[in-house]
Design a protein that fits this description.
single chain; about 450 residues; two-stranded antiparallel sheet; 15 helices
């Protein structure tokens, strides 16, 4: 088909105008349309924090040192010479026993999700540390430490808590009974209470504050110790036989190791190398020194002489009381905690024990039980939100709630476990064996 030239020219012009119009419209549309929002960056994958991990590895070693050799020497020096090996053996054997049970069952019961019963106990999913690898992090995005390190850190707490109980019945429990009792107590008392407070249980959810173990460790151990002392009864010759410590040098060394190790206990409980860990460390030092002096001066006034046993006992009382408060109070608050704990624990360990007539051999209840209660209450009264934002909701009433539940469960469960053990193997050696000494009758060894 032939198209006239005029139409060709007109057509080409129209086509050109159409192309210009389309181009202009496209450009206008591009300018008018809002720019597409850039895609949100993907959340970074949590990466192990080497600084936090290094601090937690250090803290874990420090807390383990608190039991062996710290507590072993502290308790070992305060008993009579014929029982020193048996007393040190208790701390060492408990360390081994609890390690195995924690690996098998304890960690999972304390720190895994218990599903419908999570308010009271963890689950079975991490028995034998199932599913935990070197790449598994605890608190991804926050602490970013290996879960294996977290478990090991918590293991050292699980070790020292039952070891503290042994101070209440020192010099009068059969070794076989001790092993069975401690194994059952770890599973049925320590693991549940650790879960209640730190593992997502009902006490932590209710706002009970316990930074490093005033409730979980000290009230728990102290009350269990008192129940043990009452059920077992007094040592043979108590009140008539000289039961003075055989070697206070050991006890001073042990107390000093406890003091140093406690920095891992308290500052390590932040799970990070940061300012709050530093505050917990300073608070620990201030409270401990204040309590040691408070106990010393109280004893000086009452008994007319300041004793070595008194000042080291006061230091331990300060360490105990500041434990729940260390990450919540400021240094002035820690100073107040120390002074009150030193005086109150002196009165409970020296005066209350004699007035009530029970034989708490090495003052496990007088120092740890009472000191833990003092610290827990003062945490509610003195918590400073400027140190830790969680302190904003602190109250003495909430702390009492945690104290009461801990005391009730610990006392009842400990009582039941003791009678189970008594039915299985008996609790005490014979009177003659006790008089002869547990070193030779239980272990066949003596200190020359």
């Amino acid at each position: 088909m032939n198209i006239p030239s005029t139409l060709k020219t007109t057509g080409r012009a129209a086509a050109s105008l159409a192309l210009v119009a389309l181009s202009t419209a496209a450009a206008f549309a591009q300018e008018a349309a809002p720019a597409a929002a850039p895609a949100a960056p993907a959340a970074p994958t949590p990466v192990l924090d080497t600084g936090n991990t290094a601090w937690m590895l250090t803290s874990t070693a420090l807390v383990l040192m608190m039991t062996i050799p710290g507590l072993a020497l502290f308790y070992g020096g305060m008993v009579r010479k014929k029982n020193v090996l048996a007393t040190i053996m208790q701390s060492f054997a408990i360390t081994c026993l609890v390690t195995v049970l924690w690996f098998m069952f304890g960690y999972s019961l304390a720190f895994s999700d218990g599903g419908g019963t999570n308010a009271y106990i963890g689950g079975f999913s991490k028995f034998f540390h199932h599913g935990i690898t070197t790449a598994t992090l605890w608190l991804p995005g926050v602490a970013n430490i290996p879960e294996l390190v977290f478990s090991m850190f918590q293991l050292t707490f699980a070790i020292i808590t039952p070891a503290l109980i042994a101070g209440a019945f020192a010099e009068r429990m059969k070794f076989s009974a001790l092993l069975i009792f401690m194994g059952l107590w770890l599973v049925f008392v320590y693991a549940p209470i650790a879960h209640w407070v730190w593992g997502g249980g009902f006490l932590g959810s209710a706002g009970v504050l316990d930074f490093a173990g005033g409730t979980v460790v000290h009230i728990n151990a102290g009350v269990a110790g008192l129940v043990c002392a009452l059920v077992l009864g007094k040592r043979e010759g108590y009140g008539t036989t000289n039961m003075a410590p055989h070697n206070l040098v050991y006890s001073v060394i042990g107390a000093s190791l406890l003091w140093v190790g406690w920095f891992g206990f308290n500052a390590g409980s932040e799970l990070a190398a940061d300012g709050l860990a530093g505050a917990a460390m300073m608070n620990t030092q201030v409270a401990t020194a204040a309590a040691a002096l408070a106990w010393m001066f109280a004893e000086w006034i009452v008994a007319k002489k300041p004793s070595v046993l008194g000042i080291i006992s006061g230091a331990v009382a300060g360490l105990v009381a500041v434990t729940p408060a260390s990450g919540f109070v400021n240094p002035t608050g820690a100073f107040i905690v120390g002074i009150i704990a030193g005086v109150v624990c002196y009165l409970s360990a020296v005066k209350l024990k004699h007035a009530m007539g029970y034989d708490d051999s090495l003052d496990a209840f007088g120092v740890h039980g009472v000191g833990g209660v003092v610290g827990a209450l003062l945490t509610g009264a003195l918590a400073d939100p400027a140190i830790n934002a969680l302190g904003k909701g602190a109250s003495v009433g909430t702390q009492i709630y945690g104290i009461v539940f801990t005391i009730l469960w610990t006392a009842i469960a400990t009582f039941v476990i003791l009678f189970i053990v008594k039915a299985l193997v008996g609790l005490r050696p014979s009177a003659q064996e006790e008089v002869e000494g547990l070193d030779v009758t239980q272990h066949g060894e003596v200190v020359p």
